[in-house]
From TrEMBL:
One of its GO terms (biological process) is N-acetylglucosamine catabolic process. This is N-acetylglucosamine-6-phosphate deacetylase. Keywords: Carbohydrate metabolism, Hydrolase, Metal-binding. Substrate binds at V140, N221, A222, R229, H253, I309, A310, G311. GO terms for molecular function: metal ion binding; N-acetylglucosamine-6-phosphate deacetylase activity. The active site is at D275. It holds the Pfam family Amidohydro_1. The keyword Signal does not apply. It comes from Saccharothrix ecbatanensis. Its EC number is 3.5.1.25. Its cofactor is a divalent metal cation.
Amino acid sequence: MDTVVAAPRALLGRTITGPVSLRFRAGRIVDVVAGSPPDGAEVLTGGLLTPGLVDVQVNGAVGVDFAEVDAEGMAAVARALPRTGVTRFLPTLITAPVPVAVRQAHAVLAASATLPRHPGAKPLGVHLEGPFLSPKRAGVHDPALMVAPGPAEIDLLLNDEVLRRALRMVTLAPEQPGGLDAVRRLAAAGVLVAVGHSDATGEQTRAAAEAGARMVTHLFNAQRPLGHREPGVPGVALVDDRFTLGLIADLAHVGPDVCRLVFNAAGHRVALVTDAVAAAGMPPGRYQLGGADVLLTEDGVPRSPEGTIAGSALTLDRAVRNIVSVGVDVADALASATIVPADVIGEPTLGRLEPGAVADLVWWDDDLRPRKVWVDGEVVFDSTGLDSSALGSPALGSTALYDNPSVRMAAAGQ
């Protein structure tokens, strides 16, 4: 049976236009038509209709750490994320010994397989952020657990048939011994390779792109910085069109002016990510990231006991609002959370409203807050009738720490 949803404004590609009606059937969009809504359509009053958001770096949320996830925990995350507009997400595991990382990945996949057909947001596989990283740029990762990506280590990933089918992304430091060979092998196997936690020079970063790397994990964070003579990882990433740029837009990992600079330089290649940890959507307290303690205080930024930023408590809808608040066009901000991450992860039917695409949709209000969310054409979140307290922590719908009042005017096209 067909469902038709009509919106006064919709994001088609990178352009906001309207009015638009979408017809979907069996979880897929079958028609997108401009003009007045047809008879029988569900007419959305005001706001904006977009594709579902795609987050390719999620370590956990609502108290759940993917390094120690079970079926109940995965279901809790899947139910919570649609409140933030996220319809697809890539569970991320941080540095651990390779055999442990493989075991954790199998646990993530087993928990994902238990999800009912329409639990909420859907996991896309596994992202391994380590252990093939640089101890010089460890961040909160344990340098003692980092190893070079030698042939034997890569074999452990690619010779595991179950993991190989589900391994979507690996973040590594290409300057490490065997790094470029690892990039070539992983890319040839269809794995997205990202440069991250890396002390690579600009030349080494370009060499990684030549070998097949196509993304930079959390631009500027835990990597050789941009210099006016030695560009480091960020400098090359900003000018090399082969790279998609992951950006944590909580305005704490990367400041507002630099976020705007990134969009000015390479906005069409930015993929907003949360790098969310178990603390996301939770009150201040002590949580876990890869088995280590993370402290969330009133400032909303998770940190290790030593004070190092440890992932984020960001939600992807808030990242969009933050980017709009620094002066980026609404359509560009939304594209960075939809079509860009979908394309870089190799999912051409996600992140867009067009015939043949998956019917993952978000209806936003004029403050760019999700009102209603569909996954595979089924409603998985509807704020109608919910009071404001129902949208607060720990349901990932709390008021954004960095939200700017200018977002409302920008979202309304004023």
